[in-house]
Amino acid sequence: MSQGGATVCEAANPQDQGWAWMVLLAAVLLQGLTLGFPSCIGVFFTDLQHEFQASNSETSWFPSIMVAVLYGGGPLCSILVKRFGCRFAVMLGGLLSGVGMVSSSFCKSISQLYLTAGLITGLGSCFSFQAGVTVLGYYFVRWRTLVNAMASTGVSLGFTLWPLLSQYLLDEMGWRNTFLIFGGILLNCCVCGAIMRPVQLASGSPLQSPKPAEEPGRRAEGAQLSNGASSPHPKLQQQTRRTACFQMLQKYLAFDIFCQNKGYQIYTIGVTWMMMGFALPHVYLVPYAIQNGVEERRAALLISIIGFINIFIRPLTGLLSGHRVFTGRRIYLFSLAVLLCGLSNFICVISAEFSMLIIYCVILSIAMSGIGALTFQVLMDVVEMDRFSSALGLFTILESITLLIGPPLTGFLVDITRDFHYVFYNSSFFLISAALFMMLSFCALEKKNKLKEASKVPLDNSSRYQYNEMPTEPQSESQSPPAVVYITSI
């Protein structure tokens, strides 16, 4: 069996049938094991604080690094997939995740956890999740939209089961042994990866990812080396390398789209700002409930309630947003979901009773379902599909930066004030301001475009500056899907 995108499987695997459904099952498990895993970290927050005598800010760096690397490692995973294929990336990710959590069980300081559970496990989860989603694009053509929606239910299952399992194991054997067991559980990502055999069309020609040598920069470099015989000019060689580096950045981090496409610019800034407050309840809800007298088992149940409701609401939200009534208006539906998410935090400020926290989790889960179902659909609306992969690369990296710094900064504020209410004040501030910014900015952008159209002023590349629906033709079975298209879930 050869390496890379040109790997051929042992037997023919026709798309949309047979073994493809086993791959879908593996993808559901992968999303539960990877994206769902950070939801349980809040269960260990208080124990880790006592074990390492760490502040709220110091302890919150651990889940922040994990989530930031999980979201921001997309371009690195893209290179890995193009070089070795999806199956290798998923299995490598499972190995890294397992090793990271096993190593975490032996940590002697909170800073060691940043490296083991934060960086290593986060990077492994990134490889497994994103490569697992990518392989679905190869196995499914006709049912691709439905399959991606079904695969995303794994996230909700993970949100439901991980906190319950974590609390049970924590009570029975402590956090160190629990992390050791988690390492073994995450190694099951390798089993899921083994199921994801490279696809071969019924015609006998395998679906291939473009080889690294086929990239424009590499072709140019190869041409220069071959034409320059044994000793190419040093300045020319250096210029060729710079060109190749620029083209790679252009491919995976679309700065040109950010500068030229006003819709993408507004949306990226809005979501990046939103992420400063989006993750705060997931990190601090359990310690907040415990501090206010809620039993630990019941506090862990709160996160599971969020995940359980997501299982049912997220697919319904996706179906609703696909209705033609919302064509061209999904950004406003997304902004309303962000606004509801921000407003729901005031429930925790009013009361920390368990019954009120349940109401909070129900409302938060409904809002989260809308955000999760619409985030990348809106991105597809504002960016041409042929540049979606590169636009997503910059989008997720900026997300990861604010996901990294948001919880520790809020933890620092809690350490100073000794008041957990600032968690929810901060979260509401970032979410509400982001929702209003996106809503008002897109409204102003649409009015501006309508005025230009009314005055019939010619615009160069006008489609880039407008927020419109960009329907794409469905791919036929003879066409290969994009080499790497990453869909992350929130």
From TrEMBL:
One of its GO terms (molecular function) is monocarboxylic acid transmembrane transporter activity. It is found in: Membrane. The keyword Membrane applies. Its main location: membrane. Residues 212-221 have a biased composition (Basic and acidic residues). Keywords: Membrane, Transmembrane, Transmembrane helix. Residues 204-238 are annotated as: Disordered. The keyword Secreted does not apply. The chain crosses the membrane at residues 21-45, 61-81, 88-106, 112-139, 146-165, 177-196, 266-287, 299-319, 331-351, 357-379, 391-410, 422-445. Residues 20-452 form the Major facilitator superfamily (MFS) profile domain. InterPro entries: MFS, MFS_dom, MFS_trans_sf, Proton-linked_MCT. SUPFAM superfamilies: MFS general substrate transporter (SSF103473). It comes from the Eukaryota. One of its GO terms (cellular component) is basolateral plasma membrane. Pfam families: MFS_1. Residues 224-238 have a biased composition (Polar residues). It is a multi-pass membrane protein. This is MOT6 protein. The lineage of its organism: Eukaryota, Metazoa, Chordata, Craniata, Vertebrata.
